[in-house]
Amino acid sequence: xxxxxxxxxxxxxxxxxxxxxxxxxxxxxxxxxxxxxxxxxxxxxxxxxxxxxxxxxxxxxxxxxxxxxxxxxxxxxxxxxxxxxxxxxxxxxxxxxxxxxxxxxxxxxxxxxxxxxxxxxxxxxxxxxxxxxxxxxxxxxxxxxxxxxxxxxxxxxxxxxxxxxxxxxxxxxxxxxxxxxxxxxxxxxxxxxxxxxxxxxxxxxxxxxxxxxxxxxxxxxxxxxxxxxxxxxxxxxxxxxxxxxxxxxxxxxxxxxxxxxxxxxxxxxxxxxxxxxxxxxxxxxxxxxxxxxxxxxxxxxxxxxxxxxxxxxxxxxxxxxxxxxxxxxxxxxxxxxxxxxxxxxxxxxxxxxxxxxxxxxxxxxxxxxxxxxxxxxxxxxxxxxxxxxxxxxxxxxxxxxxxxxxxxxxxxxxxxxxxxxxxxxxxxxxxxxxxxxxxxxxxxxxxxxxxxxxxxxxxxxxxxxxxxxxxxxxxxxxxxxxxxxxxxxxxxxxxxxxxxxxxxxxxxxxxxxxxxxxxxxxxxxxxxxxxxxxxxxxxxxxxxxxxxxxxxxxxxxxxxxxxxxxxxxxxxxxxxxxxxxxxxxxxxxxxxxxxxxxxxxxxxxxxxxxxxxxxxxxxxxxxxxxxxxxxxxxxxxxxxxxxxxxxxxxxxxxxxxxxxxxxxxxxxxxxxxxxxxxxxxxxxxxxxxxxxxxxxxxxxxxxxxxxxxxxxxxxxxxxxx
Length: 721
What we know:
It contains 15 helices and 36 strands. By secondary structure, the protein is α+β, with helices and mostly antiparallel strands.
């Protein structure tokens, strides 16, 4: 096959193709293209570019190559790029694409008004047009209604309607079911728009189905239920091989298909997508194209169905944990491991709030996730930039929205302020990456977001937005909390402005901060900060502390309050832990952390859930806060200035035996503390370009030693106290 001249523009020789009707919602098509090298060797390079509205699964000569390709679109549409050369063979070859058009929007996606598939491989001289053949599968029937919060549909598949397509992955397959593709438009077009390169890696997946060990439960009335327990909570697509008489119904779910609501919504159930499969006579092989999340896969079927194989393919964000932690506490170790898996499950086309129920980006959750992600997954930092880009794409009215990309952006002021604070999404991006490009380009927009709040004589007036929400639990002191968050956001933007030479908003922010400081000072009643009589909120007092508004002589009182009051749900519990650390009471922070997380640490779950006692999602992204609580707060490792500055301050009132290995933007760092009554060993292996300082504080070391700061050299540094 001769290589043709590469087009000068993207998809310059390709057409958007589909079946004849490209507007049918929940449409499934199979698209094929055969080609041959004769007796010539295949090329060593065959880079493909593919885009699909909405998703596709790709095989080359029977090999699964892409699993859930295509990217959730919002204000941007994307194409994938990858090389298929290693799958090519002498003689006849075939590429097969299983494509699905959603046509329904959700919190995670905005659908185009029609379906479409476009392909180019300049190395092979293949471009999507009428030379591709298409079969619109009749086996996919209208599914039941779901109340899931994200786009797409459940699978309702009737195998008796699929036609003779068993060998569709074979290059020699030929069937009158397949017709020449319909060319719907040239690129770019008005329906789908201009395509950008996929900013995140393609998903990794099991190249072959994993055949699981099955537990069988039989019931004479309801039939057989087969359960595969997964190694951990994960995202999978189910697989089965069975024989049947025809028209038997098989359902596939996970243990998390039905997810409860949380505080205030405990009676609700949110059903994720599931599979209903109707058998054909004899053999049924189904490699399902529906990602599902859970700890186990559940196949339910009549007793007349005979099982040959049951299994799944794992599908996940293409990253591995680059962080290891070991402490003297089995609870801390368990919580850390569960937090890492929780974060991993919630990494996809965005930072999701939960892989089970919402699958959408909420600004507050993303802020917490981002900080954990930079510590746990050194190879996955691009996803934070993707989240920031999505937010800024939707911020034409200067509002920072949650649930983007999606059809209904949500303005939650408390989430936006958290994202803008010294502890939020933008601060973590700067602390760990050091990129100022976003702030140089969007400084005015970010500042104008803060100007949406009205000032009063008593600080900023809480802003309603689309929804007023601060935390899941009750007794929230909204006035104090919102003012403390606003103060921190102004403080962060003043610092950003100073670093990039922007000062237009300095006076406005300084005036507002002074007003807020006066208001919060007036809210002190001797026991804590409150805007309500005889009622105290740990979250509000925590953020006052984090904003730096607690004078030295009040630190002990605020620490007592934060130890005694337990209003916070897991969403904002990290702020209380961090505030206690800032008040120099890491001992109290560690005690509260272990007490509140005790049930989660001891449970059989491999992820951390939405609340303390089991309501809601079992895999909630904000619980990944345990990662930075253990490493940064208890381990005393402070990372800033794009990971070019790292301060290490051991505190043996919080943790006695601690080991961590990190991969940061500036290199790799390993830290080990070991405490005994007679000796303290500290080992720091520095393989970074950062300036690293070890701070010896006698109050934290727990014995009479000289207070000093030691600059850490490259390589291994050992200290004994």
